[in-house]
TrEMBL record:
Pfam families: TatA_B_E. It comes from freshwater metagenome. This is Unannotated protein. GO terms for cellular component: plasma membrane. The keyword Transmembrane helix applies. Gene3D superfamilies: 1.20.5.3310. Transmembrane segments: none annotated.
Length: 58
C-alpha cells in the first residue's frame, strides 16, 4: 500500500498535462526539481549543524 506504479504515474502525468498544458510542464518540472534540491540542502545543513553542536532532539 502506498506504492506508486507505472499506471498511477501515467494518470498523474496526463492530469498535469491537462491542467498546465504542454508548454508549462518543463517549467513546473524545473521548479519542482529546484525545490527538492533546496529542501535536501536544508536538511543536510541542519544535520551538519546538529552534528557540530552535539545536541539531539530525542
Amino acid at each position: 500500500m502506498g506504492d506508486i506504479g507505472a499506471p498511477e504515474l501515467l494518470i498523474i502525468l496526463v492530469v498535469l498535462l491537462l491542467l498546465f498544458g504542454g508548454s508549462q510542464l518543463p517549467k513546473l518540472a524545473r521548479s519542482l526539481g529546484q525545490a527538492k534540491k533546496e529542501f535536501a540542502s536544508a536538511l543536510s545543513d541542519d544535520k551538519k549543524s546538529e552534528d557540530k553542536s552535539g545536541d539531539t532532539l530525542a
